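Marked as duplicate of an earlier ticket. Keeping the data here for the record.
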Amino acid sequence: MKKIWLIILTVCLLAPPLHAASPSTAPRAGLEEKVIEHTLKNGMKLLMVERHTSPTVSAWIRFRVGSVDERSDEHGLAHMLEHMLFKGTTTLGTKDYAAEKPILDKIELTAQSLIAEKAKREKADKVKIAELEKQLSALEADASKYVIKDEFFELYSKNGGVGYNAFTSRDGTTYLISLPSNKLELWAAIESDRMQNPVLREFYSERAVVMEERRRSTDADPESKLWETFVASSFLSHPYGQPTIGWMPEIENLTRTKAERFFHAYYGPHSAIVAIVGDINPQATIALVERYFGNIPAGGAPLPVTAEEPKQAGERRIEQLADSEPTLLVGFHKPPINHPDDYVLDVINMIMGSGRTSRFYKKLVIEKQLASEVSLFDAPGSRYPGLFVINANPRAPHTAKEVEEAILAELELLKSEPVAARDLQRILNKIEYEESRRMGTNGGLARNLTEYEAITGSWRYMIEYRRKVASVTPAEIQRVAREYFTRENRMVGFITKKGGAAQ
């Protein structure tokens, strides 16, 4: 029997729980005392929190690799790999890898020939393209005979796993699962195998799935299309302007060879942060992780992005005509997450847009009834300078222009009128509530640990955050508002309904 199956069978039948009962008299400790760190020799960072409220555990793996790390011929690969790493390994997801591999190699040669011929555009040989497409289809059908669909999912599901998923952003890629604590070794067996031996089978059929995802979620959705254009127009130099999914012509030219090269270059332990939260014994968990992941070669890390977005010399405006109700985006360039002004901008975000008591909601939605909703958020990433964004949906018969003017008027008040102490206290109360809500689940805490460790360099950002927000003064809010909320730093995007008046 294959080695991985021996491991899985042993784990499922024999493994004892990796936990110990927690004394009821143990004192409650703060997060800083609860988080246990361990770094493997290959660079993989392990963060653990012991919780015995239920016999379950959440395990998250975050790779410090996102679409911002792609180069010009790699756009869309991080998102594509998110899909492909569910396809299995040399031992999982296949009935006979030795028989499957030669067919996969033929598929790759045929697909690359097809891409090369199509790249000739008007000089391409249409007969040759048709023949290559026919060959590719036949080879994919032949390879499919060896595929075991969704074997990762089935293994986890049969052993009590829930929430098995992944997501990709500009800043990173994350894989997650929650499962019974006595099945943690099953997780280690599966995920270490996936880190070492992934097989990107069904690559070209999955590429077609991603292309359809793009058509459905972006190209056919006016608001998504506006957002994509808005971000691309905001970043003319920095790769944050590149959509995570990739532009359609770029997706069409992705190959399995490029994806494998990208994976082996960056998705090793050196780029990985693992958080395990729940019913565990930390020392036993360290031993388990060392046993399964410790001998995996470290791999590399993407080079830091050196491109800097040049300062705007004036407002940029994006209009999109669509058979859709009007919507408005107003954005301002902002610093990355570790910059001192980012904490001040977070306070402004909460004052202006957090909940029904926020200024934008009270003024634009309730009092003036200019908009049906208003939201504020940071985008498209946090590792590098991004955007402070206000999104509003005008309420008929009001226009995007009226809403824009009202938004800018409220931002001007921030510059001239100090924020009241009660508003700052409301923000601190809100932070405490959100912290307790997010930390209340194993998965929520695992997500925060991996995300902040990856983006800021330390999960302790979570501990320091409230103190730094609490130190923000009304004078700092005025200074930051004056510095960032300027015409030359502003992006405006809006949808005009086809046949409607120009804004």
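See parent ticket for discussion. The first helix runs from residue 3 to 14.
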